[in-house]
Amino acid sequence: MPQSLQDIVPDDAQAARFLTQATFGPDMEGIAELRQIGYGNWLNRQFARPRLDTHWDYAQRMGPPGCDVCDASPTDAPMESFWFQAVLGTDQLRQRVALALSEIFVISAVNSNIDDPVAYAAYLDMLSRNAFGNFRNLIEDVTRQPAMGYYLSHIVNMKEDSNPKSATYGRTPDENYAREVMQLFTIGLWQIDDYGHRKQDANHQDIPTYGLDDVMGLARVMTGLSWNGPDQSNNTWWGKSGKTWNQPMQMYPQYHSSGDKVFLSVHIPATTDQMTQAMADADLKMALDTLFRHPNVPAFFGRQLIKRLVTSNPSDAYVYRVAQAFKDNGNGVRGDMKAVVRAVLLDPEARDPSKLDDPNWGKLREPMIRWANYLRAFHVRSGTNQYRNQYLEDPAFGLAQSPLHAPSVFNWYSPDYSPPGELLDAGLTAPEFQITHETSLTGYDNFMENKIRATTAAYVSKTLGKADAMVADYSAEIALANDPDKLLDRLNILLMNGQMSPATHDLIKDTLNRITAKAWIWPKEDTRVHMAIRLLMASPEYLVQK
């Protein structure tokens, strides 16, 4: 986007659309701020904003900063902290990008052997720190993060044993992380150009990025990593001196392979010298530098970030422009995350209002993003600043999704998933549809119907809600309830970025006009607001982010 246009936000709808892509959802104050300072200045301000708290500190104190009674359970504290920062944090862009990164560099509490909940707090903090850093540092921190080491089994990963007299003769390095760091985190399965197109050989066959030998060679590099500590003793290696989840894993030279390491056309020769920590660190540096410099990375990573924030089907040109920002931030720096995020959000396609009418543009809103959208739009707060959103991943009674609860390292869905039917036939992807089915849609609607009413002050008072009960502020909406057109105009901006069609407007308006009496503890006006929000958030026009 030309610099002159970075300061122009033409209307509230365009402001809300940008904030939907860049944050956990707009509120009226955020819309006003963006319109006043412009896209470019807003990004600069967000890049400079400090974090509200660290997830580690929240988990350690078991509550938000300044809590009088810190009573978060050790198990739930990391997720409470996530929602605390997602809703209240002024560093919205950092938190939103960190969530996107958590769906690329996946660890999960599901089917996991991670036995300490604070591990997830440490992992989220690591992603937040790297959201505006450099991709090279990001992949190093991901590689050395103990939670990732546990999840993909490269912590306490020992070198090969080829000594026939040894009790562990025949042992080979674990290959799990070596495979996934290539396939999922950096270069993908197939060689691609900067447009994201697969390259082909002389026989018109797609060219793989790596083979089994590359996995085996890289797996040797990944040996010798374990808990950080004051020494490289066996007690520290096994975590008997304490599990330092919030510190990067260190190399233990006695467990790091000294054999030949060949991967991606790089050869680290075998050594007969005594292995040292510096030598082991140098092996890892060479491996990560090789991945970082691989020509696939700019388009592979850029395309995934576009899909997480903006649209499921970016054009080749959009992917190319983001890839160029990855390769060079304008000052000769490769992998500058600020430059990549700026390119994703300010690309002409991302800001083009004509895309609202393009049926191939946009993405299905993730369920957890819809919930965050609601919490922010209506200033949902609790007396203790705690957000106890438990079991959101339940498809029948929740959202079928929750941060750091994906079923596998492949996230909730493949970035290239396409549901059978028109989308598949048209060659379009729609990743979020992989968790969209009859049960999850019904569960989402029931969840929202319950929460929209359960977060009212009247309900909390009637049911003797605890101090940590979440309460929404519907006062601005209730003031408009007797004028459905004005109410829907406000909700159209807050929740739908101005995309509500006349047909949807008229359908909801007709429903609201039929509400003429008090319903249980809620006056007519309150009930109209509840119904309007529920119907709007269940509508296809809301569910598809444009």
Q: Could you name the key traits of this structure?
A:
single chain; 546 residues; mainly alpha; two-stranded antiparallel sheet; globular
Question: Can you describe this structure?
Answer:
This protein has 546 residues and is mainly alpha-helical. Among the domains are: 176-293, no CATH class; 363-545, no CATH class. It has helices spanning 12-22, 28-48, 55-61, 77-88, 92-102, 118-130, 135-144, 146-151, 176-183, 212-221, 234-237, 277-293, 297-309, 316-327, 337-346, 348-351, 367-377, 422-425, 438-454, 457-462, 475-478, 484-496, 502-513, 524-538, 540-543; strands at residues 225-226, 250-251, 261-263, 266-268, 363-364, 381-382, 470-471, 544-545. The strands form four sheets. The protein has a two-stranded antiparallel ribbon with strand order 1-2. Strands 3-4 form a two-stranded antiparallel sheet. The protein has a two-stranded antiparallel sheet with strand order 5-8. Helix 1 crosses helix 2 (28-48).
Beta fraction: under 5%
Please give the largest β-sheet.
2 strands, antiparallel
Quaternary organisation = single chain
Could you tell me how far the N terminus lies from the C terminus, measured between alpha carbons in angstroms?
A: 18 Å
Number of strands: 8
From the alpha-carbon coordinates, what is the Rg to the nearest angstrom?
25 Å
**What is the arithmetic mean of pLDDT?**
95
Strand order of the largest sheet: 1-2
Q: What is the helix fraction of residues, given as a range?
A: 40-55%
Count of helical regions: 25
Low-pLDDT parts are none
SSE-based structural type? mainly alpha
| Large-scale geometry | globular
